[in-house]
Amino acid sequence: MALDFTPDDILHGAGGAPSRIAVIGAGAWGTALASVARQAGRGVTLWGRDAEVTREIREDSRASRYLPDVPLPDGIAATTDMGRALHGAEAALIVTPSATLHAMCDQIRPHLPKGIPLALCCKGIERGSGLPLSQVAEDALPGHPIGALSGPTFAREAALGHPTAATIAFPFNFRDRLHPGQSPAARLALALSAPSFRPYISDDVIGVEVGGAVKNVIAIACGMLTGAGFAENTRALLITRGMAEMTRLALSLGGRTETISGLSGAGDLMLTCSSTTSRNMSLGTQLGRGLARAACFEGRPVVVEGEVNAPSVMDLATRVGVEMPICAAVNAVLHQGAPMEETFARLWSRPLQGESGTLGVSLSNPVSHSARRPQAKPAP
Ligand SMILES: NC(=O)c1ccc[n+]([C@@H]2O[C@H](COP(=O)([O-])OP(=O)(O)OC[C@H]3O[C@@H](n4cnc5c(N)ncnc54)[C@H](O)[C@@H]3O)[C@@H](O)[C@H]2O)c1
Ligand SMILES: O=P(O)(O)OC[C@H](O)CO
């Protein structure tokens, strides 16, 4: 559904954007979002579990562990006390790793002000249940509008004030459709709108979530093949066919193609697959160069969501009968001991098919392609 309203509707219909935002999770992205919300003029409380991290943010306006050398605005009330973080909050952003969501819901439940909207800013699918994170939060926290905030947003760049955009999606009920400017998505977008941070509004929560979860797995594939010495053609192939996988999964769950071609889908896929600033791309690159998996995680106290979520993405895809060969290859290499070169070689040797999947063509491929490392190795 196209959302048919103008920025004026938001400004005049918002009935006041939330003026107090609680951010749960003081890692790189939580701290960057707290900084954005502060720059947007909001009162911001930031919950983190490490007392030294929250002290430094609160007293020195710095976050040397997660965002070194990034000056933060004054006035972020960082705390390890969940009750204080959520007291008086009118909206909350959940920004801890996807695997912690269930536990975080249990932890915030006793302190949540009644009915406030919660935007999930982590990217993944729940392991074991194969559920989208919004479903996990809805089950755990009934009575709260649950949405997602996602897009091409490296935390450091957003915190430094580089122009950045993201999608904020919440389900629209009948009242929201009549007065879209008063919907949780629009009100939160207004609250986070800052000189260099531009939120777009959507009602396609599942489309946004699928984009965020799948792009990380595809970025690991791009990294693996880049590390193995392949170059731009291969990366473009993986990005484009990765987007086809993302689209199939999103559509099968009720998401929309325009969401997948937007910021939280194509936008984030392009960003994450283009740069070793991405932890997912960078993990893949190390593996592609032949580094052992355990060695890649040494000294890396950060979350690599594509590695965590490859099995759950495949679990969900299998449950709904969607073919995702690139994600399956990444999952097989990461978690099932499959050899990388042979696994990707099999991808290129699959039966030829129509590009859109609607032609019904499938031809067995007479050529056995190779994914062996090319002769000319890239500079390290
Ligand atoms: N860093 C980015 O550029 C970026 C941008 C957009 C979205 N995200 C997403 O945001 C989420 C968080 O990523 P991040 O970059 O902030 O991670 P991070 O590694 O920088 O920080 C993770 C934070 O979560 C906390 N944490 C870890 N385990 C926890 C647990 N069991 N309970 C409570 N807290 C726990 C850590 O203490 C830390 O504060 C991820 O899903 C990521 O994909 C990250
Ligand atoms: O560093 P990554 O790979 O976790 O990516 C961070 C964000 O998701 C980019 O939007």
Description:
- The chain is of the alpha/beta class.
- The chain folds into two domains: 18-203, Rossmann fold, CATH 3.40.50; 207-363, N-(1-d-carboxylethyl)-l-norvaline Dehydrogenase, domain 2 (Orthogonal Bundle).
- The chain contains 18 helices and ten strands.
- The strands form two sheets. Strands 3-2-1-4-5-6-7-8 form an eight-stranded mixed beta sheet, with helices on both faces.
- The chain is globular.
- The protein binds nicotinamide-adenine-dinucleotide and SN-glycerol-3-phosphate (G3P).
In terms of topology, how is this protein built?
Elements: H1 7-13, E1 20-24, H2 28-39, E2 43-47, H3 51-60, E3 76-79, H4 82-86, E4 91-94, H5 101-108, E5 118-120, H6 133-140, E6 146-150, H7 155-160, E7 164-169, H8 174-178, H9 184-192, E8 197-202, H10 205-227, H11 232-252, H12 257-260, H13 263-272, H14 279-288, H15 293-297, H16 305-319, H17 325-335, H18 340-348, E9 352-353, E10 362-363
Parallel strand pairs: 1-2, 1-4, 2-3, 4-5, 5-6, 7-8
Antiparallel strand pairs: 6-7, 9-10
Helix pairs in contact: 5-6, 10-11, 10-13, 10-14, 10-16, 10-17, 11-13, 16-17, 17-18
The chain binds nicotinamide-adenine-dinucleotide and SN-glycerol-3-phosphate.
Residues 123, 152-154, 216, 219, 268, 271-272, 278-280, 305 line the site of SN-glycerol-3-phosphate.
